[in-house]
Structures are given as C-alpha cells and as structure tokens.
Design brief:
about 40% strand, about 15% helix, elongated, single chain, alpha+beta, DNA Polymerase III, Chain A, domain 2
C-alpha cells in the first residue's frame, strides 16, 4: 500500500480512534487501526475493541491500493507531531513494516497481519434518521448517571427509546436517575417503538462524534449491534443484553413542595459548602424554611459550612440531605437559568428539573441520604 494524505485530515480522523482502541493489549491487534484503500481516492480507517467500533474515511492520493494495521495511539502521536504538509504512508516489501514520512522526517512502524483484524457486522441498510443536535444534548444530560458497577451489567449503559414523534434516553445507577424526552423533528408516523441499551463507551463516542451538533444521524438496530452513521463516520456498538429497570415507576408523582433556584447561585453555594463535607459521603443538607433554603455541611475532620439562598417558599420547614456531587452533576449540564426542586419529605425521592426550556423534558430523580 502507498498513499499520500494531508496531515490535517489524518489527525482529524485518528483522534476519534484514541478511545476506541483496546489499551490493555490482551489481544494485540485491538490496539491497531486498520488503514485500507481501494484506489478510489479514499482512505478508510477502522478500529474496534470488540464492543465498540468506528469506521471513518478521508481523502488520499493512492498510488498502490492495499491495507495495513498500525498502532493507533503511536500513529496519531507521530502524525500530529509532523509539519503541516502531506504525509506519505508506504508498506515495505515483505509487509513487516510501514514507512510514515513527511518532508525530511522518516519513520518505520511495525505492523500486524491484516488477517488478524476482526471482521465487523454490516448494517442491513434501512436506517432511521435522527437530528444530531437533540441527541447530543440527551447524551450530555444522562451519561454521568450510568453506574460503574459491573455486577449490574444492565445499568452499565443508558436505555434509548425511539418512537415516531419522540426519543428518550434514561440512565441510572440506583441512587439517581437522569431522564430526557425530546421531540423528533420532523415527526415520523407509524413504525414500532425501538428500545436498546447503549453502553457507556458508545455514549462517550457519540458525544465526540456529535460535538459540532449539526450532523444528522442514521440509526439502525441489528440483531446484536447498533449502527450510528454520522457523516463519513460509522459507529458500531454491541447492545447490552438485559432488562432495564421500569424507570417510569421511579419518577415520583406526589412531590407537593416546590422550590426554584437561580442555577448559577445554587451551583456556587453547593460547591463552596461541599468543601467542608465528609469526603466519603459528600453530604450536604438543604434546610428549607419560609423564604429561604440554607445549604449546610459538617464533618468532624474539617468543620462546618452554610450558605443561605433567598427563595420563594412558604411551605413547612424541612431538611433533606443529598450527595453534593449528584447535585452538581445535574447543575453542570442543565441549560437553564432557573432550576426547580420538588420534594415530598426528608426520605422520599426528590426531583430536579430545568425551568423554561423548550424542545425537551429533563427529569432528574435523586435519592436523599440518611445521615
């Protein structure tokens, strides 16, 4: 194989593969990216960890079509360090090494056999189009709530539900739940409801691929895999096989105490007060009284802190305790100047929502702490 490509094009594509490739090297070929050409002026790049795969393309002047695998991380570092010029990639005779050069720079990198690279499933070719911007928003507002506990494997991802006129993404770790419903534009009539659990890594890659927020997504569900085509890039993900919890039953219906906060003001108060909270529990208390909510914390090691916030509240006095990081996770992704907190009592689930947003409904259920 021999080709010449612009450095900027290669760097742009190779950076997307850095989180895809297998870092543990249990199977050496999974640390490599496959480069493949067939003489049509396109270089195809492909990498996988057997759970998630990414295929992309960039323009190249191909002298000799072929394929080769190279270490994804090191190839990216080398190409990124090159001057802003054309990059030549050429396999040596015998296929044991690959030359990567530009201007006066020349390097030789080892390769692994193309035959060792795993084959990937192909989409059937009947995708559903999803607008990229709302999907990117949904991912940002839910992925932080995914659990890291491997024992509950079905919670190691987010449930994606696609309907004709709406789409839903929901994630939970058992202590909090993030739920986003967004309208599909334009709405599609007919068709069955589609459900799939998207792995945490898939959501992270979707977030990167949708960073510009303008591309549409062609989504397709296969027997065991999901396909997301975004422009010239195709993300392939294995589905998590399991029964996601009945999230509709988790959202409380009887929370009759309502408080609204200025988002930035609440964020700063919780962040400051949490500095003196117990480092393990990260507990902060919301002390509600007429006309104010006092955010407090205390710990034997560090002392105590409090900060009052003026609010429009005329209900009964109530104290409820939350994990500060859980509150800050929500406040960090919400796109609103005002957020609402709905409560029932000190021991029941609370609900946080943005106020005055359009185009989607965002519900954040958070369990109180007992301290």
């Amino acid at each position: 194989m021999e080709l010449v490509a612009r450095k900027a094009d290669l760097v742009r594509e190779l950076q997307f593969f850095q989180q895809i490739v297998e870092r543990k090297n249990t199977i050496p070929i999974l640390a490599n990216v496959l480069l493949e050409t067939n003489g049509d002026g396109q270089l195809m790049l492909l990498a996988t960890d057997l759970e998630v795969a990414l295929r992309s393309r960039c323009e190249a002047a191909v002298t000799n079509p072929g394929s080769v695998t190279l270490p994804a991380k090191k190839l990216y570092e080398v190409v990124r360090a090159l001057p802003e010029t054309d990059v030549r990639i050429e396999t040596e005779k015998g296929g044991t090494g690959v030359k990567v050069s530009a201007e006066r720079f020349e390097s030789r990198m080892p390769t692994l056999p193309r035959e060792d690279f795993p084959s990937l499933p192909e989409a059937a070719g009947s995708p559903t189009t999803i607008t990229g911007a709302p999907l990117a928003q949904m991912v940002a507002k839910t992925q932080f709530a995914i659990t890291g506990e491997d024992t509950r494997y079905y919670l190691n991802g987010a449930l994606f539900v696609l309907r004709g006129d709406s789409m839903t993404l929901v994630a939970t770790d058992g202590h909090r739940l993030a739920l986003v419903n967004a309208r599909r534009e334009p709405a599609v009539t007919g068709g069955d409801e589609v459900k799939a659990i998207l792995p945490r890594k898939t959501l992270a890659e979707l977030s990167r691929l949708l960073a510009d927020g303008h591309a549409d997504v062609d989504y397709e569900r296969g027997e065991n895999h999901l396909f997301f085509e975004i422009g010239s890039r195709l993300l392939i993900s294995r589905m998590i096989d399991g029964q996601f919890p009945a999230y509709e039953k988790v959202v409380p219906k009887g929370n009759d105490k309502h408080v609204e906060f200025e988002c930035d003001r609440l964020t700063q108060a919780v962040r400051r007060v949490a500095l003196l909270s117990n480092e393990r529990s990260r507990a902060v208390k919301f002390v509600l009284d007429k006309g104010k909510v006092e955010v407090t914390s205390s710990s034997p090691e560090f002392g105590e802190a409090r900060e009052p916030l003026a609010v429009d509240y005329a209900g009964p006095a109530l104290t409820i305790c939350f994990n500060a990081q859980y509150v800050l996770d929500f406040l960090g992704v919400v796109d609103a100047d005002v957020v609402a907190l709905d409560l029932k009592d000190e021991v029941s689930q609370a609900v946080m929502r943005p106020v005055g947003v359009e185009g989607y409904d965002y519900t954040y259920v958070i369990m109180p702490m007992r301290v």
